[in-house]
Design goal:
Strands 4-3-2-1-5 form a 5-stranded antiparallel β-sheet, with no helix packed on it. The protein has one domain (2-53). It has 58 residues and is mainly beta. Helices cover 0% and strands 41% of the residues.
């Protein structure tokens, strides 16, 4: 699933719902940098966390 993530996509962290909506900033290998509403920029190891894609229309 991590291979699908591209800058601009909206995601949520399943174990950290309080972080709010996040926008993917970059993906290098399995490392994804996401800017979350309430947590700021976070680098996530995509081999350990499966981010949930959010439909931009919703």
């Amino acid at each position: 699933m991590i291979e699908l993530l591209e800058p601009g996509m909206l995601v949520r962290h399943p174990q950290a719902p309080k972080w709010g909506l996040g926008q993917v900033q970059s993906r290098i290998g399995s490392r994804v940098t996401v800017n979350f509403e309430h947590a700021g920029k976070v680098v996530i190891d995509g081999t350990r966390v499966e981010l949930e894609l959010v439909d931009a229309a919703s």
